[in-house]
Specification:
490 residues; mainly alpha; Rossmann fold; 2 domains; 5 strands
């Protein structure tokens, strides 16, 4: 395969990832994105890093980059997602550079296609969260490490150190790569360099932990992770066992000849195993989005072992057919991903806060009451600001908060009928006459977590007080709006 052909194939892959990321980039932000966006819009950096309403789980460099993009391009759905999209493209470019140095063209293309067309990678390339940054950080650290392992000179060693110094503030998950990289540096550069890497990176982690992580931790966050922990499926168990086998094979190859290929396989396998261990111990959740950083590592070791297996099992003439099949697989992955995105309407919002706020603004009268449930507060605040709706007179509820608001109870089963009734009585005074608008989540998983569907409890309580539902009931993609009319609320 010529260099020009390889360049064109890589360019097509990056452009395809860009197109998939743009598809749906202007859709309404959902709850998790909305509180990140609101923190980015905070008047001060302190208000952004220590957002007063919610625990700030996004890394500082991601927040600074997003804040810069919003200041440069203005407040919009797209501007909040430009940085995640750019980081996703950086991650794919980094994966291309690593793969082309380790694998033959067909296997490199397939590994990169599996990353670029992975549904979770696509979703978080257009989501205002830090996970595409974690993917980018992993590929850049792998690239810097591979370059050093191939030529362990001082200059390239400091590239590795610099990568961790810059990327840890962008992606907390970069810490999972540190033990494997340190082992690789130890094998190729000696004890002094490995210790230097650990000391510098450890100092950066300690500073980040004290300044940014510790003030944004809460016991409720771990409770939430534990409650949402996913059981190890057969597929994930097989992936973990494969990583164990790959690590053992890498150690065997290193004992015979510690070359860069064997070392990078160990470097890539260890983060996957550490993530699995952290998840089992409930230290770090291994959800699809939180394990996105490990995806490049996993795909690399799969591709390297598959290529080695092909080399052992097939004669040279037969490998041409295998390579052709691999190319066809890469192309099929791209076509299938595009079709899936269109068929599943991935350009539609997960929660249509934008549509809900626009709908309410056109109908809520100056004497009406607008009650906003905690499950939708951040989205309402964001789009009321973006719509310049300053006279909404919204009253915010105070029960069944999502995880993880500061100083609010958001544990499983925290919702009670009594607390909901008292909260409604607080928001709607006795003797009120007029229309009451209710805005709340229609996301079933939230109500299952808190223990009660408070949308139903809100409506029932108002009905009991003489405010029946005589107005419209509207559901806009996981957001519900109810109108109740009071003659004289009891």
């Amino acid at each position: 395969m010529s260099a020009a052909t390889a360049f064109r194939a890589e360019g097509v892959l990056v452009l395809a990832a860009l197109a998939l990321g743009i598809y749906g980039i202007d859709r309404s932000l959902w709850m998790d994105e909305a509180w990140v966006a609101n923190s980015v819009l905070a008047p001060t950096l302190s208000g952004m890093f220590y957002y007063p309403d919610w625990l700030q789980t996004s890394p500082p460099l991601f927040l600074l980059l997003t804040r810069s993009a919003v200041h440069l391009f203005g407040v919009s759905n797209v501007s909040f997602r430009l940085v995640p999209l750019a980081l996703a493209l950086v991650g794919i470019a980094g994966m291309i550079e690593v793969s082309r140095r380790l694998l033959s063209a067909p296997f490199a293309a397939t590994a990169c296609a599996l990353l670029a067309f992975h549904s979770t990678a696509i979703e978080y390339s257009r989501t205002c969260k830090q996970y595409s940054g974690e993917l980018a950080a992993s590929t850049l650290i792998l690239l810097a490490t591979l370059l050093y392992l191939q030529e362990p000179v001082r200059r390239r060693f400091w590239w590795v150190v610099g990568a961790f110094v810059v990327l840890l503030p962008l992606a907390w998950s970069a810490a999972f790569l540190l033990p494997g990289v340190a082992i690789g540096v130890l094998a190729r550069g000696g004890t002094r360099r490995a210790v230097s890497l650990l000391m510098v990176s450890g100092a950066v982690l300690a500073i980040l932990g004290l300044v940014f992580i510790r003030p944004n931790l809460s016991p409720q966050l771990r409770v939430y992770w534990t409650a949402h922990a996913q059981h190890l499926s057969a597929g994930l168990l097989a992936a973990v066992l494969f990583c164990v086998a790959a690590a053992v094979r890498a150690l065997f190859l290193i004992s015979r000849r510690p070359n860069s290929r064997a070392l990078i396989q160990l470097v890539a396998a260890l983060p996957c195993l550490l993530l699995a261990a952290a998840d089992l111990l409930h230290w770090y959740p291994a959800e699809p989005r939180t394990r996105l950083f490990a995806l490049p590592c996993f795909l690399l070791i799969v591709a390297m072992n598959a290529e080695d297996l092909v080399g052992l099992a097939f004669s040279l003439p037969s490998r041409g057919f295998i390579n052709a099949a691999v190319w066809v697989t890469a192309i099929a992955l791209g076509c299938g991903s595009v079709w899936t995105q269109i068929r599943q309407h991935q350009n539609r919002p997960q929660e249509d806060f934008e549509g809900a706020v626009q709908w309410l603004r056109q109908r809520v009268g100056p004497s009406d009451l607008l009650l906003v449930h905690p499950s939708v507060i951040e989205g309402f605040k964001l789009y009321a600001r973006m719509e310049a709706w300053r006279d909404s007179h919204a009253i915010f509820g105070n029960t069944a908060w999502p995880c993880c608001a500061r100083d609010k109870i958001s544990t499983p089963g925290s919702s009670t009928v009594r607390a909901v009734s008292e909260d409604i009585d607080r928001m709607v005074p006795r003797g009120f006459s007029g229309r009451v608008w209710l805005l709340y989540s229609a996301r079933h998983t939230h109500w299952v977590y808190v223990g009660n569907d408070e949308g139903i409890l809100w409506r029932n309580r108002l009905w009991d007080r003489g405010c029946p539902p005589t107005g419209p009931y509207v559901v806009l993609q996981n957001i519900a709006i109810s109108a109740m009319d009071c003659v004289r609320a009891r």
